[in-house]
């Protein structure tokens, strides 16, 4: 089996989330599975539910994280957040990296779903890699507004090199 590295931007974002052993986490847009792998490595009694609209993203995550799927620590599904009915009653954390849903269109329904499922004291972590720096203010503004309108307290965090911005919505 080929050892796959975890990019520094993913390590930084997951470190910022401070995943605890008993957390229940939702990952939106699991893609190649790097975030899922790192999150699951920090869980003991907790669980990660990872979703992606793409069949290939789901397949890649399942292959990369097969040991966590087999252990029951990770569930991966091909589904859109808008149609998701979260199988766990309460989530401690929600994680998304480069998921444009939160800044390219109205996402009030999705934010309401997250607010309903995230426990008080829990948080939604939205991260974006700034491949076009001129878009960062728009991303921050739109994501922050969506989270605030949905009842979350917002904090913006930025990593300078490479440029990654995080918008954290705390419940």
Q: What does this entry look like structurally?
A:
This protein is an alpha/beta fold and about 170 residues long. It has one domain: 3-Layer(aba) Sandwich (Rossmann fold). About 35% of the residues lie in helices and about 30% in strands. It has 7 helices and 7 strands; from the N terminus they run αβαβααββααβαββ. It has helices spanning about 10-15, 35-40, 55-65, 65-70, 100-105, 110-115, 135-150, and strands at about 25-30, 45-50, 75-80, 90-95, 120-130, 155-160, 165-170. Strands 3-2-1-4-5-7-6 form a 7-stranded mixed beta sheet, with helices on both faces. The N and C termini lie far apart (about 40 Å). Pfam families: Methyltransf_25. GO terms for molecular function: methyltransferase activity. It comes from Nocardioides kribbensis. InterPro entries: Methyltransf_25 (IPR041698), SAM-dependent_MTases_sf (IPR029063). Keywords: Methyltransferase, Transferase.
**Ends distance:** 40 Å
Mean pLDDT score: 92
Describe the biggest sheet? 7 strands, mixed
| Sheet with the most strands: spatial strand order | 3-2-1-4-5-7-6
How much helix is in the residues?
25-40%
List the domain count as a whole number: 1
Please count the helical segments: 7
Oligomer: single chain
- Report the CATH architecture: 3-Layer(aba) Sandwich
The coarse silhouette is: globular
The residue ranges in which pLDDT falls below 50 over 5 or more consecutive positions are: none
The CATH topology turns out to be Rossmann fold
Q: What is the CATH superfamily? A: Vaccinia Virus protein VP39
Rg value: 15 Å
Q: Which structural class do the helices and strands define?
A: alpha/beta
**Overall CATH class:** Alpha Beta
H and E order = HEHEHHEEHHEHEE
Number of strands: 7
* Content of β-strand: 25-35%
């Amino acid at each position: 089996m080929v050892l796959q590295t975890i990019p520094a931007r993913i390590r930084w974002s997951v470190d910022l989330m401070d995943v605890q052993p008993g957390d229940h986490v939702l990952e939106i847009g699991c893609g190649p599975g790097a975030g899922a792998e790192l999150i699951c490595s920090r869980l003991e009694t907790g669980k990660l539910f990872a979703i992606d609209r793409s069949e290939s993203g789901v397949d890649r995550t399942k292959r990369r994280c097969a040991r966590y799927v087999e252990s029951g620590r990770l569930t991966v599904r091909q589904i859109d957040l808008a149609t998701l009915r979260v199988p766990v009653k309460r989530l401690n954390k929600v994680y998304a990296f480069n998921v444009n849903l939160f800044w390219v269109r109205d996402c009030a329904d999705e934010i309401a779903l997250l607010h309903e499922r995230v426990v008080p004291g829990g948080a939604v972590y939205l991260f974006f890699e700034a491949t076009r720096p001129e878009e960062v203010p728009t991303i921050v503004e739109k994501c922050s507004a969506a989270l605030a309108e949905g009842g979350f307290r917002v904090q913006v965090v930025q990593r300078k090199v490479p440029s990654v911005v995080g918008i954290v919505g705390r419940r």
